[in-house]
Amino acid sequence: MDYKQQIAEALSKPLTDVLSTEQIKKLIETPKTSTMGDLAFPTFTLAKSMHRAPNDIAADVLSKIDQSNFEKVVQAGPYINFFLDKGQYANEVLGTILQQGSHYGDFDEGHGGNVPIDMSSPNIAKPMSMGHLRSTVIGNSIANLLTKRGYHPIKDNHLGDWGTQFGKLITAYKKWGNEADVRKDPITNLVAYYVKFHQEDVEHPELDDEAREWFKKLEDGDEEANRLWKWFSEVSLKEFQKVYDLLGVKFDLYNGEAFYNDKMQEVIDILKEKNLLVESRGAEIVNLDEYKLNPALILKSDGATLYITRDLATAIYREREFNFAQNLYVVGSEQTYYFKQVKAVLLKMGFKSAEHMEHIPFGLITVNGKKLSTRSGRIILLEEVLNDSIALAKKQIESKNPDLKNKDEVARQVGVGAVVFNDLKNERILNIDFNLEDVLKFEGDTGPYVQYTNARAQSLLAKAGVELQQGNYALTDEKAWNTIKLLDEFPNIVKEANDEHEPSVVAKYTLHLAQAFNKYYGNTKILVKDGDLDNRLALVKSVSVVLTEALRLLGVQAPSEM
Predict the structure, then answer these.
(1) Are strands 114-119 and 327-330 parallel, antiparallel or unpaired?
(2) Strands 70-76 and 79-84: what pairing?
(3) Are 157 and 252 in contact (CB under 8 A)?
(4) Strand duo 283-286 + 39-42: pairing
(5) For residue range 313-338, what is the model confidence (pLDDT) as tens digits?
(6) Pairing between strand 152-157 and 114-119?
(7) Whether 218 contacts 170, CB under 8 Å
(8) Rounded mean pLDDT of 268-289?
(9) What pLDDT sits at residue 369?
């Protein structure tokens, strides 16, 4: 039940000449502690219009309120504090969760509207480093949230499978490569060739000319260049899939940059047809003065296209193919200005769908304080980090619960979940530093802490051996109150996280719920066979249902034992 609405309606009678019910609802606050009340209405804002002191207004309004639906309503200075009927509230919250299960918090806001999500996007012939983690897991969680709100997300892994780097790689392979080595360990060797190219071209700049020639051959359909490009792409995708399998991330599309090679000319034609291209120092640009942006460079002086040409073609393709409700790009914050330019050019071209195009930026990830770079050779492989995390999780599980039957599976769930949760608990715009030992702690603001809390709840339910039926779960225990109120908040949390494309809202919520439940668990004998046993078990099960679903939205699994 919407208790803010109930309070707003109770207040609307004495305030009918001053505020609408909706205006009252927006002013309702949550006190700092439940001892002050569960919800409160401040009267400060009414003082000017009513020409009265806030305290007097509060006393007068309180005397005219129907208090029958509340435990009590009291005045605290300029505030009217509402204490909810605990039994009625608990029964409604717990009953709803037990009835709806994992669908608790679902809402058909999107009506099945398509939402392509540009995410992950590693470069072919380069490894998936820790630098690829953020776009992948943030995009995946946003897709889960969209689904829960009734949208149809389309996860598009926009692979970096085209560009001058392939000229460099082919040049390096031809000079220093070996087919047998590449077949044995493709990514390691291809990266080694790429790094060597950048080391050698410092003293041998002629290598850049060779690389440009090879890329020109690739663009022109040269058989050898095309064969190597396809081979590099195939072996790279196989390696990427190992990481995606560990993360449990699946994609709907793998439309890489090369997919749009035959779609860029239309972009140029439209720009010319609308007289939007302007010559500048031999190159061709689109002026964006009305958007207070720098000009967008569309064609180089030699007629070559740039990234923006391809991204314009991509956005147009997605509009036609999906008729999208939203078009999302989960790309690092360093590209914020660039995406403003892309959006502005699309609008000038007449594509109104660009109004629904949104760049979802995120900060950098460092590992133990160091930035990552493929070109310099300082690479921390994501697959290795995930495997190391799994190994460390298994070691901790063996010390805590040596008799656990499915240690390997639980270690995978905990190890991978710890890495994902650590990323998503931070507001995405922030830079984060990764330290493996810290993210795998079973105490503190970590994924394993939330997973362990859920496993504890599952263990309690297994020990009880009670099949809860739909009933009246009027739990009035003061110790359970904060947990019940947090459970009630979950649908609002899902909405906020989806509206803001901010998975950290869900991650932080799981920590608060886990902390509240553990406090309750530490101060309450749950399995005592008395009249409240089913009520307490209903709370335990509701916590497990919500934690499991919240973790799923983050892309984290919830083992039943740890």
Answers:
(1) parallel
(2) antiparallel
(3) no
(4) unpaired
(5) 999 999 999 999 999 999 999 999 99
(6) parallel
(7) yes
(8) 96
(9) 77
